[in-house]
Structure formats: structure tokens, C-alpha cells
Amino acid sequence: MSYPFLLEKVRTLQDASRRIADSPGKAAVIGGGLEILDEVDSPTAGSTRPDILIPIGQIPDTSYIHSRGDQLRLGAALTIAEIAESDAVRRLAWPLSEAAAAVGSPQIRAQGTLAGNLLQRPRCWYLRGGFSCHRSDGSDCPAVTGDHRYHAIFDGGPCWSVYHSDLGLALHALNAQLIILNPDGKEREMPVRDLYPDPKKDPLKFHTLQPGEINREIRLAGLSNRYTGTFLKITERGAFDFALASVAVVYNNFHGRFKNIQLFLGGVAPRAYTPEAVVKTLSHQKLDRSLLAAAASHAADVAAPLPENGYKMSIVKNLVRRALEVTYDKLSWKPD
Amino acid sequence: MGKPDKTTSLPAWSATRVVGRPVPRIDARQKVRGDAVYTADVQLPNMAHARFLRSERTHAKIVSIDTAAASAVPGVLAIVKPDEWKDVLLKDNLGRGIPILADEPKYAGEEIVAVCAETEDAAREAAAKIRVVYDDLPHVIDPEEAHQAGQFVGGGWRKTRLGEPAVYQRGDARRALTSGGRSVRIFERTYRTAPMTHCSIEPHAAVASFENGRWTVWESTQGVFAVRESLAEMLGASINDIRVIGTYPGGGFGGKVSAGKYTFGAAYFSKKFARPVRFVQDRNEEFVSPYGRPASVQTLKVGVNTAGKLVAIEQKGIHAIGPYEFGAEWGHAEDLLTEIYECPNVHAESIAALTNVPPPCAMRAPGYAQGAFALEQMMDEIAAALGMDPVEFRLKNIPDRDPDSKRPFASPKGRHGLRECLAAGAKNFNWEKRKRDRKTHEDGSKTGIGVAATIWGGGGGPPAAALLRVHADATADLFTGAADIGTGIRTALAQIAAEELGIAVERIRVTNADTDLTSYTLPSYGSLTLASSGPAVRQAAHDCRTQIISLAAQALQTTEDQIALVDGYAVRAATEEQPEWITPIAKLISQSPAREIVGNGERGPNPKLALKAYGVQFVAVTVDPESGEVRVDELVAVNDSGRVINRMAFDSQLIGGATMGLGMAFLEERSYDPASGKLLNANLADYKLPTIFDQPREFKLDRVEVPYDANSIGAKGLGEPPVIPTAPAVANAVFDAVGARIERLPISRKRLIDSLMKEQAKK
Ligand SMILES: Cc1cc2nc3c(=O)[nH]c(=O)nc-3n(C[C@H](O)[C@H](O)[C@H](O)COP(=O)(O)OP(=O)(O)OC[C@H]3O[C@@H](n4cnc5c(N)ncnc54)[C@H](O)[C@@H]3O)c2cc1C
Q1: Does A180 touch chain B if contact means CB atoms closer than 8 Å?
Q2: ipTM of this model?
Q3: CA distance A73 to A64
Q4: pLDDT in the model for residue B1
């Protein structure tokens, strides 16, 4: 049960985009509704409650998985379950497949959509609990002196919330592109890495889409067999839980060396975070399993935790080591 | 007072045919198919909807309440402010009242306004449009802070004045701890448990309808009679003005033993508007209304002599019981330590600290679950320090009569349920072997094992009554006041009746928890339902049985002792002179003068013996000290609840209890923001209940049925015992694996890593 709102059907994404642009703050697309219905029910401080919702899943051609060559194109309204179950995704972008399987529970995966997952607001219990904070109205972050056990240990302040989209983290490592449709009917392409504004500069925004812009598709280059990669997360409970910390990593074996390491951490910084020291330690080194643990031990070198979340440093180091070892062991060729 | 139940002249069953079998629940099909109607499902014609507006502030004076915009919402019927209901009090077990609506809310979420409207949406929208101006006042969340400020009363069942703890005492603990010299070793530690929420799958809910001067109330409750009494008092009505129906409560766990504020609201509006009113809390409200397990801080000081016998226990427990004295009875954790082991000197203080959080109520094994986390870890710590096996140390301290009342146990001489549970558990777990093969895996994770024990009352007792009507086709209607809160009590009671009547369980329809149709029975709490209502049902069924047998003896021209009732027939066994003779029970009844057989049963009082149920759990864990992850590889649970009536339900209780215990051990905690006093995780994503994946990889369940003849069915309680030992058993296993004592629940990744860091810093 919730406030009354209007569910409005449109025929094309273009119509949806225009409708939203024409009624600023009033209309929004709804994917699975897991996020937006929450917002409609208990709006966070500062948010506007849309009262026209346009179900994107009912618009034709929004849920597809196309693979041509090593190109993978994913419709934005795909459910998380559809991604988790797709052979093409497993074959070409298995870290995304692993991330999808790690989201919430079967119910959440069946309902939540790809774009909706990327566009979830930070899961900070102050922000979502209706507290006034840096992201809601620019005031001081209450987590700093409050209960911040789940908050950021990297890049924290003035906002200490953490990045929580499992799919998004994998898409960072895979360097995916968003195809965005705007109200004029034009499309633009943007790396997923640019979807999230820096809260230090732009605290009141949660994404860089303009009003009325709709994410139509996600595109990525599939991984060849010289690549390895994985997604892992550590949670408080066995399922139906967000990451205390998560990791997505992709790299390739370039003539027997670590190359092109894409390493991102979730759950530990306001945006997906790369522990540069780890990347630097391994990049261009000869493939060698014994280097991994030492490299991972640098994962939290520049962490600046709050008084009660230093434990995440231990988790991050453990998680990065596991991720590096798992991926290393999956390499199709390795010296040892 | 009636006769002791033992002497209702019903001998213990020797061989049984239905009792003891794994019988699927009689209502399993309805529940699984969604046919069972829970209170929140009740839909009546012309029904209105009510809800509360709750305080945004943790402690504040309300300056003004502006309802203009709210009243303008279409469909709004009434908006009630605190003064309109100021004379109505909701009372706790000791008669301490709190207002339904507060004009000075003392915790975030306290009820301040009630709204009734045509639809749920309208009620919600109106509540959101009420403008309240608050004047903030200081608040305290931390029970230790409140204690230090002298803001506390005694917890438990002894009322005290402000600033005075409730004290339990036997012997002289202080002297024993100070004058024992070197022969007494002393151990001391402070343990903390988290505030928890029941999270029943059905929220607190009432639907009331007022017709012909009388209320019918559907309530999600553990006790329809308790709801009726409390509601009658709040309404100023007679008991027979109210009918309460509670056939299918969607869980209770101690949180639904009596009427709630919402019950009063539903009844009040239903009379006012002469139409049914539905008052159902939403999930968020479940976390901020007056229910839950209170946070505890327990300091234990234990003395043990060189022979490994407990000499003295001193305990101080500080419990966060909310801003009123209401509910202070749940602010205690001393029971377990006063009765589980032999110990001549005990001094326990229960301090119910007045804090700005929702008042607590009973939650599955209230006090015991918190107390066990402290005592059962302490037992482990002492055993290790003495170089003793923790199982052996416990065995050494098993009492031979109840250490508190000094009464003998209601079990045969020389037998003790805890001793037998420990022995069976150690065997099922392979304790001796496993003690020797702890491992560190290649990935750095370590294995560990742990054990913990429990005791619980659970003897049941009056009042409980039952009525059984056996019809002319040998089907029967059983009427019992007991609520089935998910334990399967309806099935167990049907089994007991079937056992006596010699008819199949499926032929018995159970009508329960309806104040108009069934007779007075205590709520289903305290693990007493089976041991209370079971003997009443047996007596009612036995009453019918005697009458049927008498009809059969006449019909078969024999004496009553020659007749058996089997599978729907009265049977006279073959003898040398006569062949077997058999006739359907249905035929006997249809030809009888009354055309039905009616039997009554009433639970008599218990004998003056110590009535105790026992249990142990053994667990094996794998701990990753870097990530803080703990996997429970195996959990062995063994309980002594006397005679097991339904083996399937027995196993379910153990699995459910231990799973809830794992929630307490690893996950569940209400987290309050210290500055605002608001709850940060009032939803099921952030307040983490265990999932299937948090259960052990393997459960091994077993029972020891120490003969128990304090009631005629030989059974005692099992609802609460299985939740008690889980958290300390897990904590002991974690200690075994990584050498860090877990002093605070839940054992989250953070707490474990922090404890290990602390341990490292010490070295
Ligand atoms: C209990 C629980 C557990 C969860 N666990 C996890 C987890 O473990 N890992 C994880 O990653 N997530 C988790 N989630 C988050 C969940 O995956 C997201 O809430 C879900 O994916 C949102 O998808 P949706 O389709 O329901 O979003 P919606 O609510 O439909 O939309 C979310 C937002 O995106 C906008 N939007 C949707 N589609 C588009 C589009 N195509 N273009 C532009 N804007 C769009 C909407 O307007 C809205 O603002 C969990 C959520 C819950 C409730």
C-alpha cells in the first residue's frame, strides 16, 4: 500500500523520455520498482516524490541480450535474473554474470532491472532513513558521529555513503558503456564509470543523467580467453544482503605479464573505488601467483576509516587477495 | 484447586499408536495453499482502516498537533489526539500502564495520534499530513548511562522503587568470593546482548467489528483470553461483550501475548462508526512499537574451587527497558544461572534501566537467551582455565535437586535431563574425536567447536480446559483455547485425542483460540501450551473413551476391561472361548441415546516437584579471521522435553529455535543512532534475519525422553529451549577457532575482526 500514483503506459522509450522531460520532478520510469516504490512510500529528505510512473518493461525492445562477435548489448529493462541466467553473459562477461547471481535474493533478482540496479540511491541508513545529510540538503554527514559501521573507508567525506550496485561494479571493471536516449530523440554514449557524480563536487545528485534521459542499453566488449576476471562480495549474511565490501576485477595475460588490470571495490567508498597500490604493484609484472598476496596486502594502504569501520580494511585485503587468486587460477595459461 | 494432574487417574501411556509419530500438521495444506485466513487477511464489508502517527522525535513535548490538512483528505473519518484517550492505559503483567497515545513521546516511534479512514491509503496520507510541533527533551539510549544516572527500577517479577535493583539471593556470594582464598579461582567478564525484534511474519494486527452491542475481534495473538481481558479493561466493557478469534496467528515469539494499542484502536473506532475496522501495523512499525528483546549488559563474577565445582556466582544485569516502568519484568537475565547448575551462593541484580527506546516484552526465552550468552561462555572459559573438558565441567556441576526451590526433580531417581542431553550430544557430535582435530585451512580459515546447555521451566499447568464431541460417524470436534503460534499444537492435541479415541487424526477437527467457542486457557507462551492443554485434551478424550467403551461393553456383552478402541472400531480380542468381536465406534454412537459423546477435560495443578526441560547444542564452525566470516558447519541439538508427542514438530522446533538462535548470534541487532536516538534499521533489509544460507550445513537433531510423570501426557515445553544455547555455543566455537572471546552480540564481521585486533593488541 502506498500513496496514490499514476501508472502511465507509453508506446516507445522516446515517448517516455518526452513525458518525463515535460513534467519535471513529477514523472519517472519504473523498472522493477524496488527502488522507486520505496522512494514513493518513504521519500528521503530532499527528494521529490514522482506521481506518474512509466513502466519501462512494457515498452517493446527493452529487454534483450544481443551478442555479435565479442560485442554484448543488454537492454536496460532486463531483469537481474535474466542476466544471471544468460549463457551469452556468462561466456563473454562472466564477472557480470557472477555479480548478477550475487544480488539480493531470487525475488529481488526476478524483479529488479539492470538500469534500476545501476540507479539505486546509496544505501546509507541515514540518507534512506530520512535524516538530513550532505546528500539530501548539504548539511553535515550524521554518520561521522553516528553509527557508521557500514560506511566508507576510502574517499570519505563530506559524504561517507558507499557504492552498492553489484552489477554496476562489474560493469566498471568491464568498462561498459551506457546508451542514453534523450527527449529530443538523440542518443549519447557514456562510460558507466561516468554515471556517478563526485559527491565532493555535486552532492545533491546521484547520477549524471539529465532530466528525461533514459538508459536504453548497456554495451560492452566481451572478454577474450586471454582475460580473466571475477566478482566477489562479503556480506553479513548468506543471502539477501548488500556487500560490506565487494570487488570486481578483470585483467589479461599479455605475453606472460599482468596487463590492463581493472580493479574496483564496492561497499567501501562513495563511488566504485580502485586501490591503485595493488594495480601498480602487479601491472606489467610477470605472471606469478606468489605476488598476489603481497599485492593484496596493499589494498587498504590509503584507507582513512572512521572510528568504527576500520574492520573493513581487513575485509578489503582479504577480498582482493581472494579475487586475485581466483582469477589467477582461472587464467587459461600461466607459468606455474 | 483441583487435584494434582498426576492423580487424574490417567496412567502414563504404555504403547502408543499416534502419539510419538511424525504427523504432518493438520493445517499444513491450508497454510501452504494460502487458504488459512490470518487476521491481516480478514476483509469485511464496509471495513474502515486505522493507523497511528508515530513520534518523529526520541523525547519531546508536543507543542501542537495541526490536523487541518489531514482532515481534508477525502475519506478521513476520525483523527484522535492524546487527550481523547488519556484515561486509557495498556498494562503490563504487573499492572503498570502506559498511555495509548503519548503527549510527551519518550521514544522515536511512540504512538501520538490515531487516524481512521475509509481506505488504508487515505489513513496513511492523512497521517502524513498531520503537522506536529515538538519541543525536544534530552534522551538516553544506553542502559549503562541510565543506570549510572540512577534511572532504573528492578527488573523481573519483583517490583522495586526507582533506583533500586531487584535482587535474587541465596547463600552469601560476596563472602564466598572474598574468603575462599587460593582454593577459589575467580573469573569475571562483562557480556552484552543486542536489542532484537520478533519479526513475526504477520505483523501485529486486529480487525474489530461491533454489532448488537458486542465486539468481535480477530487478533493475531498468542492468547485470545488475555486479549479479551485486557481489551475489556481498556474499553470499560464486560468480558462477555467481547469475542476474540485467533485461529491463525502468523507467528508470535512472545510479542503477541495480549492486546495491543492497535487492538484498542480497532475496537474503539468500530463502535464509534458502527462498522468493522482493520488496524494492522506495517513492517517498519513492528520495529518501533513496544515489543522486542531488550539490550542487556551483564557482568558475571564466578568462583570455582579446585575440584571444579561452582562456589559462587555474582551477576549484575542492566537491561534497556524503555522510558516507562511498563515492561520492566522483561529486564532480567538471572533465571538460568540460579537453576541450571549446583551453586550454593548466588547474588543476582536485575536492573531495568529507563531508556528512550520502545518498551520490551517477552521474546522467545526472555532473559534466558541473554543469560545463557554470558553464563555458558563463562562455563567454557572456566573449563579451559581449569584444564577441563567443557562437557565434563558441566556434568560435574549438575545438581541433584533444584538449586533454587530445593525440590526434587520430576524424573526418576538418578536421571537428569541435562546429563543425558550432554551425553547424547557429545556422542552425536563425535565430541571426543573432534576435540583433537582442529584445522587451519590453506586460505587461513580455522575450524572450532563449542557446546552450550540450557534449562527451562515448561511444566505447564492450569488453567487449561478442553471439550471433545465425538459424533455418530466417529468424527470428532475438539475445542481448545490454545493458540497455535506455529508450533503445531493443534496437530499435537488432535494426536492426543486420536490416541485415546482410537480414531484417525484426520477425523478430528480442531477449533481453537476463540473465546466464544472454547474455554479459558492461558496464552501460548512460556513453552507451556502442550504441557497445559495436552493433559486437558487427554482427559476430555479419555472421558469420551470411557463412555464409548461402556457402550461397547453393553453391545458386545462383555466387561469394559475387555474392550480396546482401534482404528475406529471397538474390539474385544479373541480368547480361547470366544472369537474376536468387533464393531464400529460410529455404530455405537449412532445407536446411543445422546447420539454424540461429549467429554470434558481440565488441567489440574502440578505436583510439588521441580519441573524442568533441558537442551544442549554442539556446533562446529569455520572462521576466516581476515574477513570475519563464520560458517556453521554442523549443529547438533538434543533436547529433553519428556515424551515427544509429534516427532516432526519436535524437529521443527529445534531447527526453528536454533535458526533464530543463529540470528541472535550473528545478525540481529536494532541499531540506534546515538545523536537522535532513532532506529536506523527499522526494515528487513537492514535488520538482518537469518536466511536458509545462514543455517548450518548440517543439522543433527535428537531427543532424550527422560520419563516425566508430572502430567498425564509426560510432556514438557520445547518452544523456547532450542533458542537459548545457540549463541553461546557458537561463541565458544569461535573462541576455540581463533582464540578471541566474543563479549558482545551479534558476532558480526566487524565484532569478530575487532575482537581479534583487541586480542592481538594484548599480546
Ligand atoms: C532487500 C534488498 C536487497 C538488495 N540486495 C542487493 C544486492 O545484494 N546487490 C545489489 O546490487 N542490489 C541489491 N538490491 C537493490 C536492487 O537490486 C535494486 O533495488 C533494484 O535493482 C532496482 O531495480 P528496479 O528495476 O526495481 O528499480 P526501479 O525502482 O524501477 O528504478 C530505480 C531508479 O532508476 C530509474 N530507472 C529505472 N530504469 C531506468 C532507465 N532505463 N533509465 C533511466 N532511469 C531508470 C527509476 O526512475 C528509479 O529512479 C537490493 C534491494 C533490496 C530491496
Answers
A1: no
A2: 0.95
A3: 8
A4: 37
